[in-house]
From TrEMBL:
InterPro entries according to UniProt: GGT_bact, GGT_lsub, GGT_peptidase, GGT_ssub_C, Ntn_hydrolases_N
Organism: Dyella dinghuensis
Name this protein carries in UniProt: Glutathione hydrolase proenzyme
PTM info: Cleaved by autocatalysis into a large and a small subunit.
Pathway(s) where this gene product acts: Sulfur metabolism; glutathione metabolism
Any one GO biological process: glutathione biosynthetic process
Swiss-Prot/TrEMBL catalytic activity: an S-substituted glutathione + H2O = an S-substituted L-cysteinylglycine + L-glutamate; an N-terminal (5-L-glutamyl)-[peptide] + an alpha-amino acid = 5-L-glutamyl amino acid + an N-terminal L-alpha-aminoacyl-[peptide]; glutathione + H2O = L-cysteinylglycine + L-glutamate
GO MF entry, a single one: leukotriene C4 gamma-glutamyl transferase activity
Matches recorded under PANTHER family: GLUTATHIONE HYDROLASE (PTHR43199), GLUTATHIONE HYDROLASE PROENZYME (PTHR43199:SF6)
Amino acid sequence: MKVALRWHVLLIGFVLTTGAAFAADNPTPSTKTAPLALRPGHAGIASANALATQAGFEVLAKGGNAFDAAIAVASTLSVVEPESSGIGGGFMATMHVASGNRDVFIDARETAPAAVNPKDYLNPDGTPNRDTALKGPFSAGIPGEPAGLVWLAKHYGKLPLADSLAPAIRTARDGFKPDNRLLGSIEDEQKNLQRWPASAAKFLPNGKVPAAGDIWRDPDQAHTLQLLAQYGNAGFYSGKTAKKIVDAVHAAGGNWTLKDMSSYSVKERLPITLDYRGYKIITAPPPSSGGVAIAEILNILSGFDLTKVDQVHRVHLVIESMRRAFRDHNDYLGDPDFVKMPLNMLLSPYYADGLRQTILPDKATPSSMLAPSSGEDPGMHTTHFSIIDADGNMVAITATVNYVLGSTFVADGTGVLLNDEMDDFALVPNKPNVYGLLGSKANAPEPGKRMLSSMSPSIVIGPDRTAVIGSPGGSTIITQVLEGILAFIDGGDAHDVAAHKRFHHQYMPDVVMTEPGTFDASTSEALTKMGYTLKQREPWGFMNVVIWDRRTNKVDAASDPRRADGLGKVQ
Ligand code: DON
């Protein structure tokens, strides 16, 4: 009974207000003087799609925990939100395991195939070939998501993998109504999808973009998920699925081998943890640059009391900290299994002390004064979801196929849309990727190497409230999560954190990106006088946040109002 009621509320919540965030009603009476709660007793899930959030609750109702629910949410997103993430892509998970009070990080990031060759990303005249970097089989890394889901079930879940994958398999087999955002993405990428017959067959049934309200089925993906459910890794990385994927890549001119598939492995890593003003931040380590950058920024900011400075100076200090952290991002970071990174230095408070000294009190520091290192629309094609279960297990997962509809290349007979994550490598030295990020040797492509990511799934444990937070948005992920953490620390609830107005600076280009309404006229004027170039863009991000208030024992979940109200308005 309870479960049926939950879904009902979830769906009403979705239609009326946000996207797919829902926290079950608090069954515990709250009192202000009660001791802090040790377990929430109820769950919250915030994802980019109502069907995915519902899949997560379905699995919780079967007796699963947050990790089983994460499998259900991620695999359902692969079916209903393929423009953003899927089993042809990868994910990063920052998790808190309540029993044992452990924080873990799961790296299910894609890897470069053994035959990777930087020349494949150059035109004959030596200029960057943006097509091979972003479309078709050369743009894809070996998928990590299927192995990540298997890993979650095996090491952290309570249910068999097949139970957690069941909602996605059912949705793919029986069909669903694509939302306007998916239809808009297919429309935008129509020409690319037509380049490969299996892509056109999947996304353009009868040669056309599906109409709003049509039921859309994906029987090939249902079958591929079924094999994964039955055989685990062997069901995807070897056997029929692997062979079909490798054959399809070859038929399209690509260079994957069966060995590339069978040698893929998930990496479990220690997350980055730091203390900022009494809040424990648990976030993503390399091969994400996100956690390092967030830590560096917060370490710099911890030398200022942001509550005691006016708005203009607060923004100034935050931008200058972003600028310095992104400079280091470009220079030092890559796959930890391939490159030595000065993490002790980058994460050290003493290093932050030094950087803080270089911030001028009332003036922007031109990036050109700091050292060398470019911009494009951040796009919104990646997804983040946050889960807290009744026992206090927490999962923050950012999952991606990279740019809209990834490589737009579907491997024939599998329903698997491959990612275009290879563009997250520094494919051509000193040339920007699609997010304007530059990279160095540390992030050069090499066989088996993971490309650097900005994904920053994070958990923030404060004195009396806990937040699970993250967002898509390319390089802006880092600054969105940073600003979300600051809004949470300032006392914001889940809606405040997701709705918080954003600004972004990534060292190069030396501009502060803002959305409409980020700054009022006088703040903009003051910042311009300090030397900042402000550039307004369409709103970006799709933050999904769950917050557990341990004083009242309430769980609160919210989806980014920029998207949830306006699904389909692709910006
Ligand atoms: O891993 C990364 O940093 C990127 N592939 C994420 C891409 C992304 O967020 C796209 N759009 N919002």
